[in-house]
Structures are given as structure tokens and as C-alpha cells.
Amino acid sequence: MQPALKLRDFFKGLAQADEAVSSGSNPGSAEAGGASHFAIAQAQATSPTRHALQPLSKQDAEHWVAYWRGVGLFK
User: Fold this and answer.
1) How far apart are CA 58 and CA 41, in angstroms?
2) Does any domain span residue 9?
3) Domain for residue 39, yes or no?
4) Nearest to 40 by CA among 27, 26, 48, 51
5) pLDDT tens for residues 10-57?
6) Is there a domain that residue 75 lies in?
7) 18 neighbors 34 (Cβ within 8 angstroms)
8) Which of 3, 14, 22, 47 has the least CB density, counted as fewest CB within 10 Å?
9) Which structural domain range is residue 12 located in?
């Protein structure tokens, strides 16, 4: 079997999971790509630092991309 064919089912599964998330057919069941949601309630309960953390924002992602561009990652 060709190496690329071995990856076909994996990528097909990712695409199907993305379609399900995007269409809203199973809301809240998974992240993009079919990744599971992480349950963090117990970690937050045992750590004041974790409890105080805020979700990542669009601005966080924009800062990362600006940094990566600045160091030439996208050349």
C-alpha cells in the first residue's frame, strides 16, 4: 500500500469531524478536527492559578502570529 493511502482514512475522519462541528449537527461534542473537549473542573478546583486563568482569545492568537511572522516562520 502506498504511504499516502495509509493516511487517507485519518484525514477523512478529520474532515468528517470538522463537517459535523461546522454544521452544528452535534453541538458541543468536539473541537475542530474531532478533538475531545478537556474537562478542567477538577484541575481548577485544586489550583488557584488554574482557576484564575482566562480562555485564550483572538488577541492571543494574533500576538502569536505576529511573533511567528517577526521571526520568519512564514518565509
Assistant:
1) 23
2) yes
3) yes
4) 51
5) 888 878 777 776 776 655 666 666 666 677 888 888 998 988 988 899
6) no
7) yes
8) 3
9) 3-70
